[in-house]
Design a protein that fits this description.
two-stranded antiparallel ribbon; 12 strands; about 30% helix; about 250 residues; single chain
Length: about 250
């Protein structure tokens, strides 16, 4: 049984096609959050790790834990069930909801306002599939989770966000650095402007391999840019530790 224990919660990821990893933890710790955020959506939640990190961060910002609600969707039924179990075992269970749905089907539910769903979100976040047109994993579920040519693409998430973000809403994505130009170009074409770009590299001597790109409807000619190095001599760098110290047990 794969159980990852963090300072304030644990995550089981036996069933989820995508396991707990650096990309998810980085997005959960680095993405922009505000005490005013009330409705949030996790697209492709997997085990629910990012939603749990976001819930922990928001609970510190807010005096009332019931003042925010996170919907978390996943097209894989096993992942949705596992995320629900992880949510219910946490102290924020009443503020987290796992939903088995594709993004396309969820869009229709929102348009009809089924099941008491909100119609707009203050924050949409995702660690989406990547490696466009890459070789697919032999395992179909893992392939669908990792390849945007067989599963969900960031373009679909951007299109969804344009329709279902609130006026002051934000979209936060973690993706390979190689797609940065296309990602920002497509977002701009759909009316979303980057306000923060975090470029992450494993060590100082290497080029960034991941970006956390954050968008809003507000036009921004000079988005905040941050170069984040994860590992240094003897462990995590101090800059990365600042983002994850509230989560990892050994920090």
């Amino acid at each position: 049984m794969g159980i990852f224990r963090f300072k304030q919660f644990s995550v089981k990821d036996d069933v989820s096609a995508m396991k707990v990893g650096t990309d998810a933890v980085m997005l959960g710790g680095v993405m922009t959050l505000s005490s005013e955020d009330r409705t949030l959506l996790d697209v492709g939640t997997g085990s629910g790790i990012i939603s749990l990190m976001v819930a922990q961060r928001l609970s510190v910002m807010k005096s009332d834990v019931q003042s925010f609600f996170i919907d978390a969707i996943d097209v894989d039924s096993g992942a949705a069930v596992e995320a629900a179990e992880n949510f219910s075992a946490s102290k924020w269970g009443d503020s987290l909801r796992s939903i088995h749905s594709s993004l396309e089907d969820y869009s229709e539910l929102l348009r009809r306002r089924d099941f008491g769903l909100v119609c707009k979100y203050d924050v949409i976040f995702s660690n989406p599939p990547y490696f466009d047109f890459s070789l697919q994993s032999p395992d179909a579920r893992r392939a669908a989770a990792r390849n945007s040519d067989v599963g969900l693409s960031y373009r679909e998430i951007i299109d969804f966000a344009v329709e279902f973000l609130s006026d002051r809403g934000r979209l936060s994505l973690v993706l390979p650095s190689s797609v940065e130009g296309d990602l920002i170009g497509y977002a701009l074409s759909r009316g979303l402007s980057p306000f923060r770009i975090v470029r992450a590299r494993s060590v100082a001597c290497k080029a960034p391999v991941r970006i956390i790109a954050e968008f809003s409807f507000a036009h921004n000619d000079s988005p905040e840019e941050l170069l984040l190095t994860i590992n240094g001599e003897g462990g995590y760098t101090s800059e990365y530790t600042e983002f994850v110290r509230d989560f990892y047990l050994n920090l």
